[in-house]
Recover the amino acids of this structure.
């Protein structure tokens, strides 16, 4: 009996000592978390896509609260929630939300199966990263889309699908949240996040080929050849030529579309612009011949006949 009582007392003492130690450690190494972080995290969509530049929504919430203490939310944006979510976060933190223009993913390649001839056959793991690791792929263009759909697999919002006819990915603007997952998944960096633009209108170069003009055109009929015609026609200094490739700065572009008409290969595309109606034939030019004919007929009718005196005498006889 004494043995059992001794064991209970010893175990109780050990438990008491352990509790005291744990309590002391919890106070010593306690990490304070601002309750606002949990509140902000509840407002965020919870996609954990990483499009904001942080590991997940929890890290984003912490960054927002920290930025709030600094006095500004500039540069922080949840691409999935957009401006509406950022406005809610700003109201919760008592800050003014910075207005940000919505972005959308664009595919900067239009080398379809018809425009980009196949020069090799790949037999291996059908992922873009694997094909890119082996070399240029099945076509002569070592910069264009590989068509294996890594971007489709990376998208959590079903915003990208492969077109079976062209072999290229297509972005659904209504579903795209500009999270940037497809941008990170593409080994050739042909997908870019660009501003949606006013009325969702955009102008960009649909090519990333850095080969010289003749080589690029040989491998793809719609490749940018770096001729510089678009740069010369642009009045807003929005276009630059670097490494034989043209690039349009969305912050400077005024959507005049002159570069689209000037590009000899069709490498520059305009999106969501109204279709131009064909110019009617000038009415003035058509009316001139008709007016001239009518004037000649009128002159002929009004011109009096001249009768010779000899003709009069013959008529009397």
């Amino acid at each position: 009996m004494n043995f059992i009582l001794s064991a209970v007392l010893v175990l109780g003492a050990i438990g008491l000592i352990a509790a005291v130690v744990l309590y002391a450690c919890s106070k010593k190494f306690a990490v304070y978390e601002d309750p606002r972080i949990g509140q902000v995290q509840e407002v965020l969509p919870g996609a954990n896509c990483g499009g904001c530049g942080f590991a997940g929504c929890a890290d984003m919430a912490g960054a927002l609260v920290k930025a709030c203490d600094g006095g500004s939310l500039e540069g922080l944006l949840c691409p999935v929630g957009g401006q509406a979510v950022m406005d809610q976060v700003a109201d919760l933190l008592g800050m003014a939300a910075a207005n940000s223009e919505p972005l959308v993913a664009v595919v900067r390649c239009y080398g379809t199966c018809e425009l980009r001839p196949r020069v090799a056959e790949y037999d291996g793991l059908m992922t873009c990263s694997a094909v890119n690791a082996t070399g240029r792929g099945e076509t002569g263009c070592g910069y264009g889309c590989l068509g294996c759909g890594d971007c489709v697999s990376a998208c959590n919002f079903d915003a990208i699908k492969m077109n079976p006819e062209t072999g290229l990915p297509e972005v659904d603007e209504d579903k795209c949240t500009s999270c940037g997952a497809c941008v990170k998944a593409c080994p050739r960096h042909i997908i870019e996040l660009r501003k949606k633009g006013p009325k969702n209108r955009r102008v960009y170069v649909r090519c990333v080929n850095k080969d010289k003009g003749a080589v690029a055109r040989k491998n793809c009929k719609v490749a940018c050849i770096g001729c510089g015609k678009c740069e010369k026609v642009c009045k807003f200094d929005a276009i630059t030529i670097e490494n034989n490739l043209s690039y349009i700065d969305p912050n400077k572009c005024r959507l005049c579309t002159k570069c689209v008409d000037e590009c000899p290969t069709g490498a520059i595309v305009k999106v969501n612009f109204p279709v131009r109606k064909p110019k009617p034939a000038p009415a003035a030019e058509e009316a001139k011949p008709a007016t001239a004919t009518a004037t000649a007929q009128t002159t002929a009718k009004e011109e009096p006949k001249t009768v010779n005196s000899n003709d009069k005498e013959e008529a009397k006889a």
